[in-house]
Design goal:
This protein is of the alpha/beta class and 294 residues long. The chain has two domains: 187 residues, Rossmann fold (3-Layer(aba) Sandwich), CATH 3.40.50; 83 residues, Alpha-Beta Plaits, CATH 3.30.70. It is 39% helix and 20% strand. It is built from twelve helices and twelve strands. The protein has a six-stranded mixed beta sheet, with helices on both faces. It has a four-stranded antiparallel beta sheet with strand order 10-11-9-12, sandwiched between helices. Strands 2-3 form a two-stranded antiparallel ribbon. A hairpin with a 2-residue loop joins strand 10 and strand 11. The longest helix has 17 residues. The radius of gyration is 23 Å and the shape is elongated.
Length: 294
């Protein structure tokens, strides 16, 4: 890590977005007291995670990337054991387990051995287990990694429902753009141990204007970018990857930009206009596409 700073408001869903190796899981490790920071300070609900690790753990729960379940136990037994470990009063625990089983769509399988669960069902059980102690902060570290698209979509729907029903603060790590867009109030984009941008998804996209022209230059890229600047189409936030040039449009419409490019004689092998995405934001800031870096 290279000196990151951020804060998360109570009840907020905050995302750490970036490829593998960006520092997302290391950040979660420090906040959940499994990794000791070498310097700096981090507080969780007011508790210093280094000076008061037990207090910090008492107000939080975490769902790690890798599944941690006993396949021979039932889902109900998993939740009950976790409630006992966190010293949740028995009646409260029983009521909480029924509530979570319903909310996370586990009611029909909670008494079955976990070894019979699908990957998505095990993930939902792990989230339920993390919520049994009613934490103030829930950490979800790459919660949908390794799941097939259908199960992943179902799990996103479940997590989205948690956001609507709970006042729990959620910190989510992901390298999936749609997860960040759908679930997070704000996103910190991470790259090589640093936070390179932090804002709401809408605000991050808005920095790139209303539309983007994406074109593949047939001639020298630097010369083509110079022509785009000379015609007034491109501002200082135009960026390139290989032979592809990305031009955020702040003052021009897509149609006007295409006409100006054609009139300037810039030769292309392909050109299109579209709305900006978080991938464009990441690409401009880091020079690499998030999907390729993950």
């Amino acid at each position: 890590m290279r000196g990151i700073t951020f804060d998360v408001s109570p009840g907020e869903v905050f995302g750490l977005l970036g490829p593998n190796g960006a520092g997302k899981s290391t950040t979660v490790g420090m906040l959940t007291t499994t990794i000791k920071p070498s310097e700096g300070r981090a507080r969780l609900v007011g508790y210093d995670v280094a000076a008061a690790p037990r207090a910090a753990r008492a107000v939080s729960s975490v769902v790690f990337q890798e599944a941690v379940v006993d396949r021979a136990l039932s889902g109900r037994r998993h939740l009950g054991l976790h409630a006992e470990l966190w010293r949740v009063e028995r009646r409260e625990a029983e009521a909480r387990i029924e509530e979570l089983a319903s909310a996370l769509e586990l009611a029909d399988l909670i008494d079955r051995p976990v070894g019979s669960y699908s990957g998505g069902q095990r993930r939902r059980l792990e989230i339920a287990r993390a919520l049994v102690s009613n934490p103030r902060v829930l950490f979800l570290d790459e919660p949908t990694v390794g799941l097939d698209p259908r199960i992943r979509a179902e799990l996103l729907d479940v997590v989205g429902g948690l956001r609507d029903r709970s006042a729990t603060t959620i910190l989510l790590t992901t390298h999936y753009l749609d997860e960040a867009e759908r679930l997070c109030d704000r996103i910190a984009i991470m790259h090589r141990g640093e936070i390179v941008a932090l804002d709401s998804p809408r605000a991050l996209r808005a920095e790139l204007g209303r539309q983007i022209v994406e074109l593949r230059a047939r001639d020298d890229v630097e010369a083509s970018v110079a022509q785009l600047h000379a015609t007034g189409i491109a501002d200082g936030d135009a960026f390139t990857v290989g032979q592809t040039i990305y031009v955020p449009l702040h003052d021009h419409s897509g149609a006007d930009a295409l006409a100006l490019i054609e009139g300037a004689g810039i030769r292309t092998s392909g050109i299109t206009t579209r709305e900006p995405t978080l991938d464009d934001v990441y690409l401009r800031l880091t020079g690499g596409q998030l999907a390729e870096a993950a």
